[in-house]
Structures are given as C-alpha cells and as structure tokens.
Amino acid sequence: MTDWMNDAACRGIDTVIFFAAYTGDPLREAKRVCATCPVAQQCLDWALDTMTNGNDVDGVYGGTTHTQRKKLREQRQEAAA
Ligand code: SF4
After folding, report:
1. CB-based burial of residue 18 (10 Å sphere; 0-12 exposed, 13-18 middle, 19+ buried)?
2. Residue 80 — φ and ψ, nearest 5°?
3. What is the 22 CA–ligand 1 centroid distance (Å)?
4. How far apart are the CA of 16 and the centre of ligand 1, in A?
5. From the CB of 59, is ligand 1 less than 6 Å away?
6. pLDDT of 33-52, one tens digit each?
7. Higher pLDDT, 45 or 53
C-alpha cells in the first residue's frame, strides 16, 4: 500500500462500484467518490505510471476510466516526443 492510499475517499467502500465489468453502469457512483477524494491526482498518476494501455483494461482511478487514461498516456507520449 502506498501512503497516499490512507487518505483515499474510497477507503472502506465496496470497490465493485469502480469496475464497470461488475456494475454494468457508466461508473457515475465511482466518479462521484473520486470527485471528493483528496488524493485523486496521486491516484491518477499511480494508474498512469504503473499500468500500461495493455493491462489497464477496467476500473476508475483518479476519476478517470481506462479509455480516458489511454488518451492521457497518448498525450503524454506526444508531449515527450
Ligand atoms: S481517486 Fe478515486 S479510486 Fe483513486 S483513491 Fe481516490 S476515490 Fe479511490
């Protein structure tokens, strides 16, 4: 566990709401939780840095879906080129 996770708004919440594969909904509830989270940026950075487009297939991290994170990674790569 990373230190910032101690302050996560999702701590103690049933994490099933963060995975569309289980909920079948557009993840509105997960995004609502993330919108109140004091460590959302750290969470997003962690997701972008530790997962790749190939293994980042589901879940809401830092208020973003895997599709949004894929686009963010592409933008990072373009900016670095
Ligand atoms: S941004 Fe969302 S998924 Fe990430 S730690 Fe906060 S509440 Fe949890």
Report:
1. buried
2. -80, -20
3. 17
4. 13
5. no
6. 999 999 999 999 999 999 88
7. 45
